[in-house]
Amino acid sequence: MLKKCITGISGMLLTTLLFVNGIYGAQKTQNSKKEIIIAGSTTILPIAQLCAEAFMKKHPDVVISVRGGGSGVGIKALIEKTVDIADASREIKESEIKLALEKGVNPYKTTIAKDGIAVIVHPENPILNITIDTLRDIFTGKIILWEKLTKDFKGRIIPVSRDVASGTYEVFEKYVLKGARPAARALMASSNKQVAITVAQTKTSIGYVGLGYLNNSIKSIRINGIEPSVENIKSGKYPLSRSLYMYTNGKPEGVIKEFIDFILSEEGQKLVKKAGFIPIK
Known about the structure:
Layout: H1 2-31, E1 34-40, H2 45-58, E2 62-69, H3 71-79, E3 85-88, H4 94-102, E4 107-121, E5 129-130, H5 132-139, E6 158-162, H6 167-177, E7 187-189, H7 192-201, E8 205-210, E9 219-223, H8 230-235, E10 241-249, H9 254-264, H10 266-274
Parallel strand pairs: 1-2, 1-3, 5-9, 6-7, 6-8
Antiparallel strand pairs: 3-10, 4-8, 4-9, 4-10
Helix pairs in contact: 2-10, 3-4, 9-10
């Protein structure tokens, strides 16, 4: 009887031990996962997603979460220490740097690609070229009819702009609007993809997107006679050329450094090109 009791207790202890070890083992496996959280520019989103997928295949112990929201949103999240990497299609502002330093965050910039902001219209629109001044007049509401610009196309112009949290918008505002605000009648889109879809579906519209969002459903036009080609963007000849960045809290270290190094590697830069953007190497 005593022997049976001891044997039963031993069995219970063994079961409990195995159960606890099972939980501990699961926790250990879960905790051994390395995580990188990325947010920000929707322009950079396709690059970040492609590179994250490729990097995770090489490193199964790493989990990378990628979301958009706009450059301003990504930088704000970095300052609040809720992300590891902030994607930005414009440089961080002095006011953002000041706020970051106050919160113990030291923004560190890594350039990962080149880009150009392409001005787009519906494929049925015959216009091929536009000047910066005319573009400003369209988006600020001074020109509202296509008949003012071409005899072969008619209709009320519908400007499609990015929202103010967007780095793409801030570059457009700086070089095209020159500090002015879009007209109240302009449509405000939360992503490059939304701009492209809206222009593709609206014959009299005009908008602007990063190079990676160009497709056959929309048509890019020249600005001041210069097309948004790789050569013109690399040389800076195209008026709306820019660099794309990833910001971290201080110089990247550990798995974050490994991921950014991967983007800058030959394989990573090929993915930059695959996403429709211009490699820096």
